[in-house]
Amino acid sequence: MIQKVFISLFVCFAFTTNYAQQPSKPKPKGAPKSTFQQGAVEQRAYVNQPKPEKIYYVDILTTLGNIRVGLFNETPQHRDNFLKLVREGFYDSLLFHRVINGFMIQGGDPLSRYAEMGAPLGMGDVGYRISPEIVPGIYHKRGALAAARDNNPDRASSGCQFYIVQGKKFTPAELRDMINAINKTKKLDMFSKLMAVDTNKVRIDDFRLRGDDKGLEKYMLQLQPILDTLFEPYFFKPDPNYVQLYTSIGGAPHLDRDYTVFGEVVRGMEVVDRIAELQTGNGNRPVTDIRFRMRIVNP
After folding, report:
1. Mind giving me the DSSP string for 76-102?
2. How confident is the model over 241-255, as pLDDT tens digits?
3. On the CB side of 231, how many CA atoms lie within 13 Å of its CA?
4. Does domain 57-169+249-296 have CATH number 3.40.50.720?
5. pTM of the predicted model, to two decimals?
6. Are 225 and 98 in contact (CB under 8 A)?
7. CB 69 within 8 A of CB 264
């Protein structure tokens, strides 16, 4: 019986979040517009963000055509690191080694320069990571340039590997379900961590040993406000641009808040589409090598 009570409260705590039911916070007034846009949809809005004097553009010259990306000044560590590697010729003759149609194309693994056909790739790096620069309002829309990473808990980016989002369009209902799933997963994770705290674990084990269902239920309900307080800063309630972007332009919204987007394609999305549509083999590596090099357009 006590196990049923615990499971019931567990489900209640973890799955009572719906983004549409949360009170909205007042929007800041006078937020300046983003540094640049692709198309007519505004992607970013910032408070007290001065307009940068210069925007850097980089051409990615591939064997299937050229892609031009603009780098965001709102992510200076990623911008400067990318420019440094381009200037050093680091990316010259590397491959787009991972391609998933309807999702993204990924490159920047230094091991791909001399890799044999079909060899697994994606493990190469430059020996350092970059601290995450995940900026609210910068989304994984179609054409977003973002930093790849492994599953490190700090969400630190690879020092060299990147991807360009091809993505797909979503319906409002699909976005709503995705946002609710993100919030529920986060709250479930926080609930598990709260239960693992020594003092809570000891009390819960004591209720279990004594078979005290009512005592356990009362104690768990006392923890509910603590869980809500811990979860509040992580609650994801997107701005209206989020829905507009992913329903009209498309992208990969499930990556938001976990990976750093540091630029966007301003020319050559048709090339991204061509690369994404290539036949692939093991590890989503194209069966035909797609090499590239880079140059800064406005050095």
Report:
1. HHHHHHHHHHHHTTTTTTEEEEEEETT
2. 899 999 999 999 999
3. 30
4. no
5. 0.78
6. no
7. yes
The dihedrals phi and psi of 136, each to the nearest 5 degrees, come to -55, 135
Rounded Cα distance, 161 and 141, in Å = 19
- Six token digits for residue 156: 């630190």
Report how far residue 36's alpha carbon sits from residue 266's, in angstroms, rounded to the nearest whole number. 10
CA-based nearest residue to 36, from 267, 266, 295, 269 = 266
pLDDT per position as a tens digit, 57-68: 999 999 999 999
Cβ–Cβ < 8 Å for 149, 129: yes
**Do residues 109 and 138 lie in contact, with contact meaning Cβ atoms separated by under 8 Å?**
no
Rounded Cα distance between 247 and 57, Å, is 27
Handedness of CA 150, 154, 160, 161 (dihedral sign): positive
User: What's the CA gap between 18 and 243, in Å, rounded?
Assistant: 16
The structure tokens listed for 163 are: 């991807």
* Tally of residues, the chain: 299
Q: If you write DSSP's letter for every residue of 208-267 in order, what string do you get?
A: HHHT-HHHHHHHHHHHHHHHHHHHGGG-----HHHHHHHHHT-B-GGGTTTS-EEEEEEE
Please work out, in degrees rounded to the nearest 5, the angle formed at the alpha carbon of residue 156 by the alpha carbons of 35 and 154: 120
Instruction: Enter the tokens of residue 70.
Output: 């603009």
Q: Where are the domains of the chain?
A: 57-169+249-296, 171-248
Segments of the chain scoring below 70 in pLDDT: 1-53, 299
